Amino acid sequence: MATHTSPQVEALWDRFHEVVNMTSRELREWLGVEPDLTPQPGPSGPAPLGLAVLSILGKRRSDLTGDDLIVMQKVIDVVEEETSAQPREELSTDERRRHRLMNVGHDPLRPQQEE
Fold it and tell me: Domain locations in the chain?
């Protein structure tokens, strides 16, 4: 695996971990997969992007691949697009949007971390 330590990767890593506010356990349960990422029986399979997020959450920064960096940017883009200019009250009542966000590890109802 390639080691990526550039300032851009550091910033991407930090931003990814800001927008992904669910733990790997919470995301695994939400997606309905076993700890080994095997789908549990159900009507539909887990979101592929969510599975990629789970994989990244289990890695160290130094173990990221080029594909991981692409996934991380995509997750950031999805979360920012879905939450920008949306009042918190609207996000809390839009179950469809909340489910899309939770499929990539972002629970819009979770209080934001203070810096």
Answer: 7-102
CB 54 within 8 A of CB 24: yes
Please write the tens of the pLDDT for every residue from 20-40.
Answer: 999 999 999 998 876 555 555
Distance CA 8, CA 48 (A): 25
The whole-model pTM stands at 0.81
**pLDDT value of position 4:** 47
DSSP per-residue letters across 59-109? S-GGG--HHHHHHHHHHHHHHHHHHTT--HHHHHH-HHHHHHHHTTT--TT
Q: How far apart are CA 5 and CA 83, in angstroms?
A: 29
